[in-house]
Design brief:
133 residues, mainly alpha, 5 helices, 81% helix, globular
Amino acid sequence: MILNACWLIIFQLGTKIAYLFAAFIIALILLTSFKILSISLRNKLNYIEIASIRSGFTIYTAWITSATMLNIAIFLKTFGVKDDKNILINEELIAIIMVWTALIIYMFITIKEKNPLFGLIYVWVILAIYSKQ
C-alpha cells in the first residue's frame, strides 16, 4: 500500500525522472503482489477466504502485471521511442513485443498456479485495448 501511494504521487509528476522512478516502484509493487498471491495460493483457505483474499489478490496482481507493462511503455515513449516506421525500434514494435510478452507471462502464471482468473485478466486487458483501437 505504501509503494502504491508512492507510485501515485511520483507518476503524476509527469517528468522523465518521475517515470523512471515510477517504473521501478511499480516493479516492486508487482514483486510484492506476486509474493502475497503465492502465499495465498499455497495455504489452505476456506470459501470466504478464497473468494476475498485469493480472488482479490489474483485480480490485483494480474492487473498490476499489465499496469507495469503500460508504465514501461510510457517510460520508453518519454525517453524517445516514436511512432516512426522508418526506425528499427518504434512504438508499434514495442507494443507487439509487450502484448506477446504479457501473453507468455499470463499463460505461464495461469498454468503454473492453476489460476484461470489470472488469465482472464489478460483477456480483459486485451479487450480494453481492442475497444480503444
